[in-house]
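Entry 12.
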Amino acid sequence: MKTTVAGSYPKIGDLTEEQKLRHALHQFDRHEISEENLQAVQEEVTREVIQEQIDSGIDLVTDGLIRWDDPLTYQAGKILGFKTTGLTRYFDTNTFYREPIVATRLESRKPLLASDYQFAASVSQKPVKAVMTGPYTLAKLSKNEFYRNLAQLAYDLAYIFHQEAIFLEEAGCSVIQFDEPAILHHPQDWQLFLRVYEVVTTGLSKAEKVLFLNFGNLGELYPKICNIQVDTIGCELTKDHPNWKILKSASFTKRLMAGLIDARNTKMETEEEILEIVHHLSEIVPLEKVSLAPSHGLEFLPRSVARKKLTLLAKVAKSYQETKVS
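Predicted 3D structure (tokens):
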């Protein structure tokens, strides 16, 4: 039973020396520093947040998505054919993203995230997971001004993401996570979603493929979601979340990334609470097929709280394993 993070990590810390990225972004906006200077600060903060995850005891880390402004803009900005517009609310959160506009046919002539992965892997003593917002969610949350329908847009993005996954495998990435919250809100698109992931995952044989479904519940997608061509499915499983009842309705046949720690609440869980949740989880899925994680990215928690929550997660995983061994 391993531990991981869902994706993002707080960019800005609580201490004065942890404000460097905020200052650099303000300086860059005022044209006081170059893009190279900003990138140097982003790399420094990436090193810091990777080390914080490692120090917390996490087994599989991410780069914290430090370069990302929101879940869509960073990726869309690297794909030819996109432009961005005003701010739009991201699902039921108090966060926003700049809505990508599909102006022309989409294409990508170079890797989107592989260089970010390579940098993170070069400075981490633990394995690094690549995280991206998946093609369906990117298509669904974009304003389509070029393609005849959603399917055409989603397929072109699927081919781009397939190539990106190949780039990541070639770079040595062993785990690739696709975040797809939009499908939870549009289960009528299931057949399209299934075909999109046939395109994305075909021929990928080296990396573990993770499908992360948060900001909602599995609902109508379960248990058919287990038929999709990925190795692991992740979902929110905080205390009393609807996914508990849904998962008990039919056998879960994939590996599970269980989002046990609430990443949208500063309230700290207790070790006893999380141990109890893990015990209930063992009644649904064999724990050797489970990784423990926060329910969402940690970006909007205070960094001190994020550290404490990850430390608790790692402590619970270790405690539970030691209990079983004894």
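Annotation: The CA atoms of residues 56 and 308 lie 8 Å apart. The mean pLDDT is 94.
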